[in-house]
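Lecture notes, unit on binding sites. The following record was shown on slide 14. It pairs a sequence with dinuclear copper ion.
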Amino acid sequence: MSFLSRTLPRTLAVASIAMLAALWAGCAGDYPQSTFSPVTELGVRINELFASLFWWTMLVLVIVFVLLVYILIRFRSRPGVEPKKFYGNNLAEIGWTLGPAMIVVILLVPTVRTIFYTYEEPPEDALVVEAVGHQWWWEFRYPQLGIITANEMHLPVGRPVDIRLSSADVIHNWWVPRLGGKRYNYPVAARPQGAPEPKNYERISFTVNEPGQYSGQCAEFCGESHALMRMMVVAESPEEFDAWVQGMKAPANAVPAAGTLEEQGYNAFLRVGCTACHAVAGTPAMGRLGPDLTGIGSRWKIGAGLLPNTAEHLAKWIRNSAEVKPGSKMLAFPNITDEDMTAIIAYLQSLR
Ligand code: CUA
């Protein structure tokens, strides 16, 4: 026995065990962005299509391999046996042309059906949310409710929603895996040729069935901080959603009481220039270039899902956001005094 024939089986066995272990490791843990646990009918349909195509292709794979193994054994070379030689076989040729064509047709039917389902128009009374992609954050507008927020979208469970996707700059892509499917955010000027007027948005529609926090992210390369363009969908009961909407419409602490640290922060917020880009409902701050800060105190993260919303991170972000998020378009404010910074952060945290 040669060295190779002695060591090869053992090497193969060890390699297979290592690969199985690696595969297994993929099944453990918590995957907040798994498409395999959808919470919308849209996600369920896409998942079912995937599963059914997967198992049909597995069936094809098994048939091909069984035939292959049979042929390898049945027609192996044997001393003194000459294989029969012939050229051309109409039956075989028709078979291996029609067979795969039939398989393609079989796979096409459920695929096309699902594609049409994903483009079904939402009902008239659906909750409309305009999701506008920006480099590198998400703006969420609720035109029926008159509120605007950023990066964390609240939705009521059980009500159909009509998400209208567009972009303020380059192409982005909406993707919250557990809600099902991705879809492009096109800049209005870069609509695909022949897109129907006056609809200048893409659309994705679904009903969330289960309360929870569903994370997502931009799925189209859109520049330096594309990988840091995250979002969160907060699906809650209709009562909780209504309470959130009320808070967003008339934020309790938008203009803080006189003599408080928050009031000092509010004045500094107006003075240092934040309002050129940011808005807070109920105040003179109406900037639209950056994320709307109404209710910022109740968000989990800042910088589009980048950092936990703490005083320390807020200070870092305001001083120079590009340090933590490459290419960030927010102006740096290295010269705000520590006193003003403490007050501004107290103000921002009180906005909930
Ligand atoms: Cu926006 Cu990638």
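Take-home: The CA atoms of residues 45 and 114 lie 7 Å apart.
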